[in-house]
Amino acid sequence: MRIAVLISGNGSNLQAIIDACAAGHINGKIVAVISNKPDAYGLQRAQLAGIDTAVISASAGEVRERYDERLMDCLDAFQPDCIVLAGFMRILSEPFIHRFGHKMLNVHPSLLPKYRGLHTHRRALEAKDEEHGCSIHFVTAELDGGPVVLQAKVPVFDDDTQESLAERVQTQERQIFPLVVKWFCDGRLTVMNNKAVLDEKELPEDGYAA
What is the pTM of this model? Predict the structure, then answer.
């Protein structure tokens, strides 16, 4: 399958997927890495791996729908079968999601439906949660509300900071995101009736947990 990855920053999850493809663990090829930030380090990771890159920056005062039209045009040129949002820090418009939602996977740093949106690690610490984690989910028009495919949990320690907790969560992201992309590229994973379906079985709200 042809994979396009959208990023905004460092690209550590991108690197995990690049490595999984190179090792033959994913039955697919990353055909493009697209960033809304020209200085995103993930662009360098892609270039080092010989992957085509593009930068689609928002113009001053540009409405979201117009930006997304330009992004859609860029994606169309690469004809992706799977679109991976690996730290892409933009909210996508409904027309974009309606067009690509069935093939878009996102990583979110919380155990959804808990802590949608930003500052998830701070919120987990402030709530004195005993566990935290990350979720891979399909993208819908509801912010961080799409069907969850897989989650990974980590403990929260008394001396944790936002930074230490984030590092622990990101380690798990790099483990489970390539696995979910593999399932999708193998044709095992899809979304039907707003539910994630793996091997023709509907997944529960918190995703695959066996």
Answer: 0.96
